[in-house]
Amino acid sequence: MKEVTIYTDGACSGNPGPWGWAAVLIYGQHVKELSGGSEYTTNQRMELTAAIEGLKALKEPCKVKLYSDSAYMVNGFQQKWYTKWEQNGWKNSSGQPVANKELWQALLELTRKHEVSFYKVKGHADNKWNNRCDQLAVAAIPK
Length: 143
Hints:
The chain is of the alpha/beta class. The chain has one domain (about 1-140): Ribonuclease H-like superfamily/Ribonuclease H (Nucleotidyltransferase, domain 5, 2-Layer Sandwich), CATH 3.30.420.10. It is about 40% helix and about 35% strand. The protein has helices at about 45-55, 70-80, 80-85, 100-115, 130-140; strands at about 1-10, 15-25, 30-40, 60-70, 115-120. The protein has a five-stranded mixed β-sheet, with helices on both faces. A hairpin with a 4-residue loop joins strand 1 (about 1-10) and strand 2.
């Protein structure tokens, strides 16, 4: 199974507001950059979208180390929030519908295709690839 590293990020101009997302995929010496944006959305949606698009770009099942500065997304997987959500019919602990349900479900489906480990990185720090994702995401924000 190929081992791939993916860095993801979302960037904003208001929340909600126009947003961009980016993913950088690294396999050996190969680097692939992806990005996109939306005119009116939220930070959380763009963070999840970046991870979804990064994983969707893989052509075969891979072992993936996914790095993000989104505590929301990383904690959701590291702490397995989704197991309770699935058991509760996609309701949160307050009995309300899970925010961004369709994105969580899409991401969860991809994590079942690939062997994905999630890692939290500090945003806007000294991480070369997280910083590159931020640059790409900012550039993808619709003007």
